[in-house]
């Protein structure tokens, strides 16, 4: 008896994904839980296992196809006659205090802020699955967007133009489309490669973040001389203990201390741990501290989230950072691993640079960039002393945060990093 295999739910608010690998062919005999497909969603690759043992009789999708949750993707002929059932997706939802909203508010009132006008009523919108997915992710009502495709079909470019128009104060009018590129082959040889799925998602999200948030970046530095002296002996002792220091005593990096310090500062300055609901005319303050860490991978930038950082020790943070970064580089992150962040950190110090302007990760309102620390001469106690200064770049949403608050935020963070022992006692 042949049964349909349907795409299971990949994660909360994830309507589907793109097929990046097909691991079987028609006629193959598979066992229970054997991977059939790999589907990329929310910058992570999720294996889709066989819900029962049997023979593959049909493959209903191919590499490169976009598939929606509940869509049939294959059929399996089972020898025992039991129908296939989509396997449940196990997700751990961390316990956290409720956001600061009114008790009588309905669940819909605490959804991410939308950037649209009220939805049109009774309109039949023509749009493909990928376009509908983009509209769902960005909180766009397709009924508000004039379609430029055949028979008024709404395209992804229509959505992007609409967002840019709203962000520039252009009302519901159409923004100017990106000009068509010239034929570069007229001047020399070129190489053309299609955008990978993850790069498309990065481009779409960065366009949204830059379009809807008025960015300002505040530059400062932290004196981490004593922090380096405080943490380095621990790493040296760990390396001398034997052949398994990484599993038992992970390297405690500067970033781990920064995350711990950020949890302290965010509690004191809650406007940096918030989201702006512009349509609802309110700010949602989160009473939990889930910090995103930008990780550079072969396929592009991903931002996994470390949860409840305020309740973890620096050693626990360092261990979890190492584990989640390793999973990110292996492409083993799940969509839920990159959701629910309240603030993001991007550390480029290992590569170089003196400062940069990170883009705020919507719907968050701030992001901290770290650059390479350098020795600087400082006049102290009547003499010049070498001090290690780490540049910090804080980008923030100027609708929520004022410049003076950003300066205080960086100064408070710098003071904690300057005195690591006092910081740990404070925590």
Helices and strands, with pairings:
Blueprint: E1 2-6, E2 16-22, E3 29-30, E4 35-41, E5 44-49, E6 54-59, E7 66-68, E8 72-77, H1 129-138, H2 156-167, H3 197-212, E9 215-223, H4 225-239, H5 245-248, H6 254-268, E10 274-277, E11 282-285, E12 291-293, E13 295-297, E14 300-302, E15 305-306, H7 314-329, E16 343-347, E17 366-370, E18 374-380, E19 383-397, H8 403-418, H9 420-426
Parallel strand pairs: 12-16, 16-17
Antiparallel strand pairs: 1-8, 2-4, 2-7, 3-6, 4-5, 6-8, 9-19, 10-11, 12-15, 13-14, 17-19, 18-19
Tell me the helix content.
25-40%
Find the CATH topology of the largest domain: Chloramphenicol Acetyltransferase
Q: What string gives the helices and strands in order?
A: EEEEEEEEHHHEHHHEEEEEEHEEEEHH
Shape descriptor reads globular
State the fourth-level CATH superfamily of the largest domain: Chloramphenicol acetyltransferase-like domain
Instruction: Let me know the largest β-sheet.
Output: 7 strands, mixed
Amino- and carboxy-terminal Cα gap: 60 Å
Radius of gyration: 25 Å
Count structural domains: 3
Q: How many separate helices?
A: 9
Residue runs with pLDDT of under 50 for 5 or more positions: 84-123, 168-176, 240-247
Q: Estimate what percentage of residues fall within beta strands.
A: 15-25%
Which structural class fits the helix and strand makeup? alpha+beta
CATH top level assignment of the largest domain: Alpha Beta
């Amino acid at each position: 008896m042949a049964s349909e295999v349907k795409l299971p739910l990949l994660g909360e608010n994830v309507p589907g994904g793109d097929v990046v690998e097909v691991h079987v062919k028609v006629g193959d005999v598979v066992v229970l839980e054997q991977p059939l497909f790999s589907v990329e969603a929310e910058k992570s690759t999720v294996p889709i296992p066989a819900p029962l043992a049997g023979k593959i009789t049909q493959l209903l999708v191919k590499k490169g196809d976009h598939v929606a949750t509940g869509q049939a993707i294959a059929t399996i002929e089972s020898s025992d006659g039991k129908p296939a059932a989509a396997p449940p997706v196990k997700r751990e939802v961390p316990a956290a205090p409720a956001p600061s909203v009114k008790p009588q508010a309905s669940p819909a009132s605490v959804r991410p802020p939308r950037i649209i006008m009220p939805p049109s009523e009774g309109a039949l919108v023509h749009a493909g699955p990928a376009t509908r997915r983009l509209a769902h992710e960005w909180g766009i009502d397709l009924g508000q967007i004039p379609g430029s495709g055949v028979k008024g079909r709404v395209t992804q470019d229509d959505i992007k133009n609409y967002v840019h128009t709203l962000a520039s104060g252009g009302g519901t009018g159409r923004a100017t489309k990106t000009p068509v590129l010239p034929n570069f082959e007229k001047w020399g040889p070129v190489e053309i490669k299609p955008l990978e799925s993850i790069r498309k998602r990065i481009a779409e999200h960065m366009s949204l973040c830059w379009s809807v948030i008025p960015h300002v970046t505040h530059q400062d530095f932290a004196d981490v001389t004593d922090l380096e002296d405080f943490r380095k002996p621990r790493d040296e002792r760990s390396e001398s203990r034997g052949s398994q220091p990484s599993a038992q005593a992970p390297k405690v990096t500067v970033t781990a201390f920064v995350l711990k310090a950020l949890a302290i500062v965010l509690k004191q300055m809650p406007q940096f741990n918030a989201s702006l609901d512009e349509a609802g005319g309110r700010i949602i303050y989160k009473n939990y501290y889930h910090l995103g860490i930008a990780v550079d991978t072969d396929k592009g930038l991903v931002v996994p989230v470390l949860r409840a950082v305020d309740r973890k020790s620096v050693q626990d943070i360092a261990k979890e950072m190492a584990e989640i970064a390793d999973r990110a580089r292996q492409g083993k992150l799940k969509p839920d691993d990159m959701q629910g962040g309240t603030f993001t950190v991007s550390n480029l110090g290992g590569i170089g640079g003196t400062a940069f302007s990170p883009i705020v990760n919507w719907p968050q309102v701030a992001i901290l960039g770290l650059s390479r620390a350098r020795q600087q001469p400082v006049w102290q106690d009547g003499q010049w002393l070498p001090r290690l200064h780490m540049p910090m770049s804080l980008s923030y949403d100027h609708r929520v945060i004022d410049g003076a608050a950003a300066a205080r935020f960086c100064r408070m963070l710098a003071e904690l990093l300057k005195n690591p022992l006092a910081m740990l006692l404070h925590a």
